[in-house]
Amino acid sequence: MEKDNIAVGLDIGTTKIVAMIGKKNEYGKLEILGIGKSKSLGVARGVVNNITQTIQSIQQAILEAENNSGYKIKDVVVGIAGQHIRSIQHTDYISRNNPEEVIGEKDIQLLIDQVNKLAMLPGEEIIHVLPQEFKIDGQSEIKEPIGMYGGRLESSFHVVVGQASSIRNVGRCIQSSGIELSGLTLEPLASADAVLSQEEKEAGVALIDIGGGTTDLAIFKDGIIRHTAVIPFGGNVITDDIKEGCSIIEKQAELLKIKFGSAWPGENKDNEIVSIPGLRGREPKEISLKNLSKIIHARVVEIVEQVFAEIKAYGHEDPRKKLIAGIVLTGGGAQLKHIKQLVEYITGMDTRIGYPNEHLAGNSSEEISSPLFATAVGLVMNSIENSTQSAVRMEIVNEQPKVVYRNVPPPVQRYEVEENYVEQVETFEETREVKTAAKVEAESTETKIRRSFFDRYVDKIKDFLDNAE
């Protein structure tokens, strides 16, 4: 297995679990090497509620991906979602000891670490701290403060918070499946990377990812994430409504929704009827497609109105916060017929369906280009991009093997070093007997390699899981 640019994303959803293996080709596009999916049995509304069943589903998806690709999966980047996720806006500042020195990464890291110490509600922990705009000595609207002079460095932050127990349960499932957790990414952010263009993020856009158990929202403006939310309703609620309203079993309800369902009742005529086979020799059941669409319409309207309430809470009606690019729909629920028109009707905003094919290699199958796999594609993209950008490679003198250090999130691959080199690596800070391969693009050898909070957070989960055994 090539070690430099192969990544694995694992999307643990309410309806399905997807393991996707990919790498960047010579044109910078994502080439999918293998995909495995299984029915998700132990997850409800994005939260694990049955450890054993979730482990079995993960193992099944991993095995299928390995068989399809010929690669052995050792560790994965996992998407985090669920009804426990919430986000807050926070502003914080630091006073610098020496304003005559230019602002560096250590100052920004100090500010981020300060935000990480915020007191949360009992049982909650911070998942992401995302800097937005900076202010230096009162000068606002600074996007890149590094290299500037100033005594007071201030920033507004988008802070994503979740239940620690839910995140640790995901970690336990990964570890028990025989693979390692190498990174966590908020699922709406992964989906956004897969389906949104940079122009849309600059203009202002709301990404709505309609999954099986939850509907995720991510709002971007001026290229910066401004708001995230998770609404605890999705495609499964629509299926339940059809099941109850038509008095049929869940499997039939799901098939009805996919094949004949529409979010716009006016499209169906009164005489359009579908016949459902009866159970155990009973008479077939006839269902009007107009009534089916009315059931679907009622629930979709409820979901869209809740999402629109979140968009209004962000401040969409403020001219400075206006989302010029409108709404992008993705996820399995975006495949519902006429949902685009309904969303436009309710919100009055331009809407399109988001496909992840813009970033995929030209030979990718039509199935992978579906909105259904947007999150999985985004997780693989994030993993590759982060491991490429944040790599700090160091080569030990006398042609010794390379040792690779990584920032956030940790990479999909791991490098093993023989014991007799470990001492040299550990004493790197004292001896300085190491040449940096990334001296120009990274920091000087005198600067410590700082590990971000997110890296430490993954380690904290690993420690918790190890001690729990």
Automatic annotation (TrEMBL):
Membrane-spanning residues:
none
Q: Which GO terms describe its biological process?
A: FtsZ-dependent cytokinesis
Choose one Gene Ontology CC annotation of this protein and give it. cell division site
Keyword list, A-Z: Cell cycle, Cell division, Cell membrane, Membrane
SUPFAM superfamilies according to UniProt:
Actin-like ATPase domain
Domain SHS2, chain residue ranges per copy: 7-195
The way it spans or sits in the membrane comes to: Peripheral membrane protein
Compartment(s): Cell membrane
Q: Does the keyword Secreted apply?
A: no
Q: How is this protein organized at the quaternary level?
A: Self-interacts. Interacts with FtsZ.
Family the entry assigns: Belongs to the FtsA/MreB family.
The entry's function note states: Cell division protein that is involved in the assembly of the Z ring. May serve as a membrane anchor for the Z ring.
Q: Would you tell me the protein name for this molecule?
A: Cell division protein FtsA
The organism of origin for this protein: Flavobacterium johnsoniae (Cytophaga johnsonae)
